[in-house]
Specification:
This protein is α/β, with parallel strands linked by helices. The protein folds into two domains: 172 residues, Quinone Oxidoreductase, Chain A, domain 1; 136 residues, Rossmann fold (3-Layer(aba) Sandwich). The chain has eleven helices and 18 strands. The strands form four sheets. Strands 3, 5, 6, 9, 10, 17 and 18 form a seven-stranded mixed β-sheet that branches. Helix 6 links the parallel strand 12 and strand 13. Bound molecules: zinc ion (2 copies).
Amino acid sequence: MKAAVIFRPGDVKVIDKEIPTPREGEVLIRIYACGVCGTDHSLYVGGFPANFPVVIGHEFAGEVAALGAGVTTLHVGDRVTVDPNRVCHKCDYCRMGKEHLCENRLSMGVEIDGADAEYCVMTESNVYRIPDQMTYEQAAFCEPLACAVHGMDLARVIPGDTVMILGAGGMGNLLTQLAALRGAVNIIVSEPIKKRREMALENGATHVIDPGVQDVDAELRKIRRIGADVVVEAAGNLKLQAQSIYYSRKGGTIVWFGCSPMDKTVPVNSYDINDRELNVLGSFNNQFATARAVELLGSQKVRVENLISHRIPLKDYPAVFDLFGKPDTLKLMVDTA
Ligand SMILES: [Zn+2]
Ligand SMILES: [Zn+2]
């Protein structure tokens, strides 16, 4: 089979590889679509640790092609998506219901082979059936949407809230839709790229701000004098993370959602956090949110078709890193069919 393998930061190639064999409790999946994530880019630029070499990619959907011994809940031919994080079910975190923080987590495309390939294997309990009407491309959004759902769970957005989202890439647009579904009345999106601001408006933003030419804080205060109830940093940008705490009202919640570089720090004024009683949270992966993501996409409560800016055939995989972050780029989708 063809597979995109990252050998070390900056070195990714499409190679021929053996089709993996599902072991006991695993299924083999024929992959039909795989989205490109900020994490993939972080691996490529050396901002995230991984077990190199590894098949990259973890946001995908396909069809069950073979069953390992003991698999009882899935059948060959089932259309599926996957929570790509394999956990141990044994460590202290798994036992407290925080499986996404598992000490022995093995994530596809990072520690174990991922899904920018024709086939992959995954544990039965990580595999979710998708509705007939859902396309594979839509289903490839289940993983990023599950992460966005988790971010919103942590942020506890309630009806009537003012939510500010910094960055309107693929994740910012999913978060915007979820904030609207949770009843936020003001959803303010700050984003320097015009096309992305337009997309955010299509996806439920009530106000957009261009930080390149507008004073973000002044624009926010025109909409809500005291600041936002919830601020979500969805770009993984250190400057924005530092600014984000000033956009929150007293007692508000700031979620650092974007993938941060592992070796950098952000200057924050601890007096300000204490004095204004701010809740500054990190959001990582997803906690039992995949089934909800499948429901949200299957019911079309969350729309993703307009987020795909480019479709790249698997054989041309390395091109994704030339496109990543460009003004015309939103979600990159790898066609693995
Ligand atoms: Zn992802
Ligand atoms: Zn565990």
